[in-house]
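TEACHING EXERCISE
Course module: macromolecular assemblies
Task: Read the component lines below, then compare them to the predicted structure of the full complex.
Student: A.B.
Group: 4
Components provided:
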Amino acid sequence: MLRFIVQRLLQLIPILLGLFVLLFAWLRALPGGPAQAALGERATPEAIAQYNELFGLDEPLYVQYLRFLGRAVTLDFGNSTQYGRPVTEVFLERFPGTIELTLFAMIFAIGVGIPLGYFAARRHGSVFDSASVVGSLLGVAIPVFFLAYLLRLLFAVELGWLPGSGRQDVRIDATRITNFYVLDGLLTREWDAAFDAFLHLILPAIALGTIPLAIIVRITRASVLDVVNEDYVRTANAKGLAMATVRRRHIVRNALLPVSTTIGLQTGLLLSGAVLTETVFAFGGVGLALRDAITYRDFAVLQGFILLLAVVYVLVNLLVDISYGLLDPRVRVR
Amino acid sequence: MSAAGPLSGAPVLEVEELAVTFSRKGEAPVRAVDGVSFDVAPGETIGLVGESGCGKSVTSLAVMGLLPKRGVSVTGSVRFNGQELVGAGDSMLRRLRGADMAMVFQDPLSSLNPTVPIGTQVTEVLLEHREMDRKEASREAVVLLDKVGIPDPVRRLKEYPHQLSGGMRQRALIAMSLACSPRLLIADEPTTALDVTIQAQILELLKELVVDTGTALVMITHDLGVVAGLCDRVHVMYAGKIIESAERHELFARPRQPYTGGLLASVPRLDASRGTPLRPIRGSARDAIPWTQGCAFAPRCDNAQDDCLTEVSGEIVPLEYDGPGRELRCRHPLEYPQAPPGATALGAAR
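Instructor-supplied answer key:
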């Protein structure tokens, strides 16, 4: 087991090196530099040169590359040209927001998706089943930003039931410990702060969770339909077990195996930043930071964030593989 | 197998005119089982024999009430200890299944839940049908696994199906089916997925257990070797109907239905001289014609004549009395000019 984990972690190194070369080349190929973006179109050449010198952007590319690589090993990705602060610091501030959003989106997707998929399969061929199939197709097909705008327009702007932008009401002066706003509120017993942060999560979480929801419904439904016809379910029935036992132990347990993989992969995907959703709801997570970094040619933030997110993605996948082994004894790593 | 024959007593299972029809939207309904009748007495072993698709497995699933509800219609009568099962409620069937009537399936790997330890799969039957707590159930599970010849049962209980060999898995399934000492055991091709050496062990095990407990056994198989070693009575099925029934020795000595004869002739024999060709039945089960048009086997039969067709004879070929303990569905059966060797001995001077 330990060998397996170490092996997978070592695989990270070539992935990251390759990713970094691509990133570095791609970012430098973008038209306009960070100085231009920061100082505006009418900046004098002197100002630009000064700016570039300040951030080390005047040196040859290979020097920049090697220096970045050397620092990255110690998790130092340099300073952001936008905020003038270390990239790692900005990341630690932003990433909790994305984690929170992902968590709520997945709770929504799993909580609604698995029961929906399961009951659609139990009533296979019924109107409910057909509706769930069509609905989940729609869920995958609707562009996220469109759905996000609709939700915001209806529930935040028109009805005014829920907040439609930000992570917390700016008038609340909440104490920050972990930058997980809901968690911070609970830890400091600032209940209104926690509740307000929670309300801010609802609409973005629904918008972001819709695609995973649709995928989970489809996979659960297909998987249950598959498992119901398995020989071991017939065996369980032949043993005269109560229907509830047959369902719980023999149907649901096996049907959820492929669903758990999907959940893991989707979680990894959402964690790497929901640029569209965060933009619509001005939700201060990693996605919004990435968008801003592109706008302002903030190379340090882009490089640092994308590398860190790649690490997160690989780690989440590793977790998925390990947990799959726990759920399915056949693939358990010994 | 000693010629114990059926023990006295009322039959455990009485199947009468059982018919199973599968219907799918947009397709003609398929009659998989077409008026099958047979009895099984306590301690008796009967064989349902036939090629794939002849309806033997569907018969067994219908008896157990394990066929899906949708698109399947079951008619006729299945009485277990005098209790009618066709049309019986789900809760009553669940009470009987696993407790009084049990089943062993063909493919032990797919028939076991891959994500649940063997132990749980054994104890769940006990917990469901016998008043036991978890501790007693796992103690009993050890006894059961030991009884079916699984070495080191305490360790095996914690293992998963994929960690066991094919033979061990089938033994585990048998342990589960025997957990509540059922009065009827249906074994649906229990040895098909196993190595030949393991096959013999499993059959031996089933035989012992049945003899020990007086359980009635219905053996479903296409393998005449299994029949020869195990069954008291044999029912040969073809295209959903029983076409010949006889006591085992009788059937092997004097098969009357040309189909039965063909089955016996197609078994390779060690005592045949080298180079003797095997004699397969020509054609395949797919050549069967509907019974309403004539004998389903007629297209493949060497004895077939015009009156095997309903159009000529005016009626569906009936299953009729064919000597003591025998029934036959055939208009032109195989004939035996000389009495078989056993018969002359019986007829010798007293």
